[in-house]
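This section describes the prediction task in plain terms. A model, or a person checking by hand, is given the sequence of a single protein chain and must write out its three-dimensional structure as a string of tokens. No templates, partner chains or ligands are provided. The sample shown here is typical of the held-out split.
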Amino acid sequence: MIRLPPLRSSARRLRDLLRPPGAVVISFPKSGRTQLRVMLHAARLEALFSHAGSSEARALEAHELTEALDYWQRHRVLFMIRDPRDTAVSAWFQARHRAEVYPGDLPGFLRDPRFGIEKILLFHLMWLEARERFPDFAVLRYESLQSEPDRAFRAAARFLAGVPPGDGRVARAVEAGRFGSMRRLEESGEGAALFGQALAPGRGGGPESYKTRRGVVGGWRDEFSGEDSAFAEALFREHDYWARLDRAGVPAA
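The expected answer:
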């Protein structure tokens, strides 16, 4: 039987049942949601966030994640998406150096059905192809949040809040979301005070355990071997990934 994300308490369960339908940010881990949280905080806006059961701590395979579609079906969904290769690299650093749930190397992680690239791309396709099930559905690309932060954040905030944010709020959000700004928050400890472990180094405390580890679009090229790249390309072809994204209204970045 497929398991739903656990609720922390009966009070939390009651709040979920009574909460009026609203907007939620759904994303695979390491797709940029901490950056969006920091930006929304700077703009004095709030949102619900969920990994829809896909976190590395739960270590579920892609076919075990479908019930989350029903769990959030009354909500408007802002779906964050990032290149699966960059997501996988960042997720490996998270699983090995922060969450400490995967002791193996990157090649093994990429090929593991509980964590790797195939799980990521199937998660993307599942949510994008279910978009008609929700009252409203929008997509926020991680890459757009880096290359066009003003435009991307303005659109995301308008979707989540229902009204367009003012220029002052957007400017504060963009500054707060810059890599250097977030790194200073994490290094100073203020990030942990504001956002908990979402913006705090892992237990080891080394550079690889930082949430703000690198933040580079296309950084997977520095980490993948030739065999890893070929493996990823074979999966993209097998699942017709880029064409299915395009049919779902999300053309290649």
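For orientation: The chain has 13 helices and four strands.
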